Amino acid sequence: MPRYISILRGINIGGKRKLLMTDLKQLYREFGFDNVVSYIQSGNLIFTCNVTNTSFIENSIAKAILERFGYNVPVLVFSSVEWKRMTSENPFSTHDINKLHVSLLKDLPTEYDVEVFKSKYFTPDLYHLNGQYIYIKCDGKYHQSKLSNTAIERHLKVEATTRNWKTAIKISELLNE
């Protein structure tokens, strides 16, 4: 059965939109998803299911969270193959892991918005845009970066969520278990 990763944006951050992972895992099981595993409290879940349409899975999860918990939460779903490819293609992988992040885009931005984004200066931080992923190498702390999730969404006009590289790698490791 195919394995997927769902990444929820903006839950359990600063005490806002609080969702227990046990409640989310139960919700996923009610959908018929199997082998549901969560990693940390920020909405990273791994599961198996027979459905292959990731947009359908995303919309179903988002709708159920809204109905049950009252939160309108963007949900991004990736196949295990997509996730492993994403973690293997980081052009900054030889750098300090504590400085690395990945922004996951819900949709592909338009070519125009990508060109506008590329014209911006985010120094001293570096980035590499690769389809639905933006690999980020921060010079300082991520919360001080000009490449914040909010800036990415504003410039590319798509929903996004960002994870530190340690989380991305840990999820990849969990996929191998």
Helices and strands in order:
Layout: E1 3-8, H1 21-30, E2 34-39, E3 44-48, H2 54-69, E4 75-79, H3 80-88, E5 100-105, H4 111-118, E6 126-130, E7 133-137, H5 149-156, E8 160-164, H6 165-175
Antiparallel strand pairs: 1-3, 1-4, 2-3, 5-7, 5-8, 6-7
Helix pairs in contact: 3-6
How is this structure best described in words?
- The chain has 177 residues and is α+β, with helices and mostly antiparallel strands.
- It folds into 2 domains: 3-82, Alpha-Beta Plaits, CATH 3.30.70; 89-175, Alpha-Beta Plaits, CATH 3.30.70.
- The chain contains 6 helices and 8 strands, in the order βαββαβαβαββαβα.
- The protein has helices at 21-30, 54-69, 80-88, 111-118, 149-156, 165-175, and strands at 3-8, 34-39, 44-48, 75-79, 100-105, 126-130, 133-137, 160-164.
- The chain has a 4-stranded antiparallel β-sheet with strand order 2-3-1-4, sandwiched between helices.
- A hairpin with a 2-residue loop joins β6 and β7 (133-137).
- α3 (80-88) crosses α6.
- The chain is globular, with a radius of gyration of 16 Å.
- The mean pLDDT is 94.
